[in-house]
Amino acid sequence: MDSAISCEPAEHRYDTRTHLFVVATLCWNEGSVPVHVRNMSAKGALIEAAVLPKPAVMIVLKRGSLEVSGRIAWAASGQAGLSFVTSVNIADWMARRANAHQDRVDEIVASLKADELGFEPPAAAPDRPNRSVEFETELALLRADLTKLGDALTSDIILVATHPEIQLIDIALQRVGRIMSASNSLVIG
User: What pTM was computed for the model?
Assistant: First the structure.
């Protein structure tokens, strides 16, 4: 094991570490924090976070539906070594499908990028010009509300780490923007 990655002496390790870079949540009695898992073995892991509990504190590491109990073996300079109570299957923790909600978000983003959603703007009603103004006003209010909600939710890093589906708000904002652009082109054109 590369000594630059961990402060824990290599002679105390019993299992080979697998390098990975996944986001998880570290929970303990006093709180929780999003962490980056840098490497993992069946019985432990190296994590990084801005705030970490002290050595010997009992913890639970969570990623999607996966979780493992353990303790902080050591902590220094924004890194900590975890010692698990039970063995984990590293492949499960590396799997892209650790969170089914994230899979759905990824599908939606891919669809948006490929422009597969095929938005059709509403047909203009020439006999009701005020309807267009009402529609644009409602869309502008919806966009402002979604922006305010998104800003409030994304300011909580723990919430973002545990609920990646918050990205759906940004996707909704993009859709509203496309609707507003299409609506404006109908009025101008």
Answer: 0.48
